[in-house]
Amino acid sequence: SAYRLCTMRKLPSILAKSLTSGTSGSPVLPDMSEVRSRLRDIVGASTNWSDHVQAMQERKALHTLLAKCQEDLPPRRMKDSYLEVILPLGSQPEIREKYLNVHNSVRFGRILEDLDSLGVLICYTHTKQEMQPRSPLSIVTALVDKINLCKKIIYPDRDIKFTGNVSWVGRTSMEVKMHMLQLLDGDYSPVLDATFVMVARDPENKRPAFVNALIPESPEEEEIFKQGELNKLRRIDFSTASLLKMAPTAEERNIIHDIFLNTLDTRQEGEGTVSFRSRKLPPNSVWMEDAKLKSLQICHPQERNIFNRIFGGFLMRKAFELGWAIACSYGSSRPFIVSVDDIMFQRPVEVGSLLLLSGQVCYTENNYIQVRVHSEVYDADTREHHTTNIFHFTFISESEVPRVVPKTYG
């Protein structure tokens, strides 16, 4: 199978403490609606858009609760932030329609929204202050490092369980590992693994804020923590090697040149007359510029998060759906998502913004299609465009796809 197996890292069973206990003795797990309601309570978010200015004013007063340094905060363990949440698609048919796609399986864009909400709640659980019902921290998604899937189909009529915990902590940032499982034949079997990076900021979401340190308690937890540190270093290396800062390597230059030479039109007589501008498409190929789609979203208050900005999960869902549409039209068959990589949240999106999404196929190999979606906001008052996110999605098509070929150096 082309699908990578999910590495379901089993944290010690002690982590699987239930959040709330049922009277029957079996744990009653919260569902996704309870996750969102808890988040609103922790932050004191308004449920009415007309009250949002007042709610944000009230949050300003929480400044006094911020720690002056990380050492002032009690360190936490991985099990302290461990959460299990149910998505009762099997036991509550009335919620199914929201999650259903035309192929009678689950909309992956909805799963992205749920992972985003859960990741934030896990971080608030890690940083919870005793005796303080409201958190002074604004915890926001900075990066989706990786999501790997090991199931092609997510069934719309079987319960889903999400589990997760904080796996690494810096001074103001936290890595969260989450797993999704689905009930099959009486057992929960792995569907995906996700790694998100969240950052903590002050109550007005203006400056970084300190978070509780994390103490690994076992060799297995040490390994998970060490992997989080390596992930951070890899991200730093990756950003410094960006093509906007550094020239392509010799190997990359050769690849680019080979692609270029393969597209030169050599039908003209004599090598001296071959023009750089005269290009032809190799067989079974598509120009990259012909594998693009765009969409526009008006950012309504309905899509706001607890800080009255546009919910990151909504942005991911819209970008994914555009990416899926591009992969679908490119491969002329139903594509399946394999992985999501390096979603950077570069700036928040304000309610009322015009959100412009433009996506393109940027690489293909056999049945695989790599799609890049660029997201930017347009401010009608200033007429300025600002990049908010870059998304990378890898799909697998049911049959082999044409090769995508770039036409310009960019």
TrEMBL record:
InterPro entries listed in its UniProt record: HOTDOG_ACOT (IPR033120), HotDog_dom_sf (IPR029069), Thioestr_dom (IPR006683)
Compartment annotation: Mitochondrion
GO molecular function, one term: fatty acyl-CoA hydrolase activity
Signal peptide coordinates: none
Ranges in coiled-coil conformation: none
Domain HotDog ACOT-type: 81-204, 289-401
GO biological process, one term: acyl-CoA metabolic process
Keyword set, alphabetical order: Hydrolase, Mitochondrion, Repeat, Serine esterase, Transit peptide
Superkingdom, natural source: Eukaryota
Main location, first listed in the record: mitochondrion
Entry's Gene Ontology cellular component terms: mitochondrion
Family indicated by similarity: Belongs to the acyl coenzyme A hydrolase family.
Protein's UniProt name: ACOT9 thioesterase
Protein's organism: Eubucco bourcierii
